[in-house]
Amino acid sequence: MFDVVLRGGDVVDGTGSARRRADVGVTDGVITAVGPDLGPGTRELDVTGKVVTPGFIDLHTHYDAQLLWDPDASPSPLHGVTTVIGGNCGFTIAPMAPDHVDYVMRMMATVEGMPLGSLTAGPAWDWSGFGEWLDRLEGSVTVNVGFLVGHSTVRRLVMGDQASQRPATASEVEAMEELVHDALSDGALGFSSSNGPHLDGNGDPVPSRLADRHELVALSGTVRAHEGTTLEFIPGMGEIGPDASALMADMSLAGDRPLNWNLLGNLSPTPIYAQQLTASDDAAARGAKVVALTLPDVMRMRSDAMIASLPGWSAFMALPVAERRRAAQDPTVRAELSAAADTLAARGLGAATSWGLIEVAADEEDSPLAGRTIAELADEAGAEPIEALIDVMAEGLHLTLLFPSLEPTLGTSDEGWEARARVWRDERAVLGGSDAGAHLDLMCHANYTTVVLGEAVRRRGLLSLEEAVHQLTQVPAELYGLAGRGVVAEGARADLVVFDPDTVDTGPTVMRHDMPAGGARLYAGSRGIDHVLVNGVEVVTEGAFTGRRGGTVLRSGRDTATVHLAGAS
């Protein structure tokens, strides 16, 4: 008898093969049978008319700190995500030493948009080695979690204040290598770094930006000695020049591993896409492997703070909500705010083509305003958009802007979606870039999986369901060597998603105040996700968490297989 049988669904197995009607049997957290008319299970789920797929894999999150108080890694599992990878961009909270906790907290708060009050009010950062931190999470997580070891944190532990001031000496690089080796031996899934324009909590460059080429290549080389490891890197912003392209190839060759870089400019004109992807071609010509991470969605960013900074609006927005409501009833105040429309347009918020891209992020998903655009509200009221905007702001609600909205970017146009879909099919790119757990008050892209299924597959027909599932499961699993994950097959881990292909979608973005010390974050639920199983444990039912914990902490070598470069020794 099976522990669980998913009966009567259409299996889309993650390989890109056509869907087929089959039952799926699970025993001890493993898929033990896939086929018609399987025997009984202790628990039976009738999934007739639904699709059964592998759990989705999000390679780029920053859930490192959030998991300490939110073992669900919410909202990712609501969108079918069963495995998340953290420790990206060189920013990690392990290894750690007492003298550096304050610095790393403030760095994470500044760079990754995590409320500092929530970080300090959360559980104490009282571990030292990477393995101690992983042990803290083991047995308490809802989804599978794995982490890279971050360059900036390691550099800070070795060099202290000087980490953000100068290149490292040879002995300091050796000390960093030793810390990275220790972390990899403890189970870190790889090494991450960044040359992006980040500043720390002191306003200085984050430590990894002071690293020279020798240091980056040397630290990348550490992964070669550890099974099941990988590399992740931010080369900078915009076009990738010859130096950055060569550096990524050098890092990949030093580690004998693929390097995943962040982030392919999903907002950029097609020529920028093409230029950025040539880094993969340059690497391949040298026997290296460089793969671009691309966000398969239009970027949505919180915009009410931008409005609050406008002349004529700042005093209004600074009022308590009750006083703001009263002020909005004053015709003089409304006239003054309306006069700022030209300023709004100049900043891309009030142009006629943009009002339909500004959405309300209410405090509750079932609010009648949640997910509604300013254009829609204005049409319903028979008013000008600026009048609808004043009314929304008077209620203390938040806004998100589908950004940017105008050419020369691709924005939300049909051309833009079609260009992105071409990139998704490109073997030089992998879907991801949610940044889930970071930039919490600015954006929420933990829902990119249901955006792909709802917008790109169902509404626009840009990908077949089989193609989309393949890109969300097997492709990232193979890139990172996630053993036994990314497919529905006998012997694979029972990470499974059941959804309705006719209704699957993201819910609207809302503002929640559910972090330690009342910290706020943007959040999105899902629609049409019926069941999510992690290692055979049902963690989501009908779009809500069950409270059960099925996840495991992924450790290099034990849970991951080595992905060597083609032809490398």
Task: Outline the secondary-structure elements.
Elements: E1 2-11, E2 20-27, E3 30-35, E4 41-46, E5 51-54, E6 56-58, E7 81-86, H1 101-112, H2 116-121, H3 130-137, E8 144-147, E9 149-150, H4 151-159, H5 170-186, E10 190-194, H6 213-220, E11 230-234, H7 242-255, E12 259-264, H8 270-285, E13 290-294, E14 300-302, H9 304-308, H10 314-318, H11 321-328, H12 331-338, H13 341-346, E15 358-361, H14 374-381, H15 385-394, E16 398-402, H16 414-424, E17 429-431, H17 448-459, H18 465-472, H19 474-479, E18 496-499, E19 505-512, E20 521-527, E21 529-534, E22 537-541, E23 544-545
Parallel strand pairs: 1-4, 1-5, 6-7, 7-8, 9-10, 10-11, 11-12, 12-13, 13-17
Antiparallel strand pairs: 1-2, 2-3, 5-18, 14-16, 15-16, 18-21, 19-20, 21-22, 22-23
Task: Considering the chains and any ligands shown, give keywords for the structure.
569 residues, alpha/beta, TIM Barrel, 2 domains, nine-stranded mixed β-sheet, six-stranded parallel β-sheet, 19 helices, 23 strands, 21% strand, globular
Supply the CATH superfamily name of the largest domain: Metal-dependent hydrolases
**How many structural units, i.e. domains?**
2
Per DSSP, the total helix count is 19
Helix content: 25-40%
CATH topology of the largest domain: TIM Barrel
Q: How does CATH name the architecture of the largest domain? A: Alpha-Beta Barrel
Terminus-to-terminus distance? 45 Å
Based on Cα principal axes, name the global outline: globular
The Cα radius of gyration reads 24 Å
Based on secondary structure, the structural category is alpha/beta
Per CATH, the class of the largest domain reads Alpha Beta
Low-confidence stretches: 404-409
Sheet of most strands:
9 strands, mixed
Mean pLDDT: 91
